[in-house]
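Write out this protein's structure.
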Amino acid sequence: VEVVESGGGLVQAGGSLTLSCKVKGRSFSNNDMGWFRQAPGKDRDFVAISRVGGVRDYHDSVKGRFTISRDNAKNTVYLQMNNLKPEDTAVYYCHAAQFGLNYWGRGTQVTVSS
């Protein structure tokens, strides 16, 4: 299984970015997929999750600004990020779980300038 993120970059505060995460090697249509982030000097934190059945959960700090979605046919999960803030600056990691195993991508850098 390979998890590959894309879509990070540099954006001004108030701007938008969309991250993509494609999982290769196995179908995850019946499994949860989500996003975490890690800012410099901090722990990796939960951002959003797309659960089987359509339930979506978000960290309080991104509610109303970020939207997680998925395309099961493409084995891909997305993170639409609007109204970005400097405190959103971090490496964003895609996560997928299946059969008790956790799969992570290498991360994509998001930098928000003030």
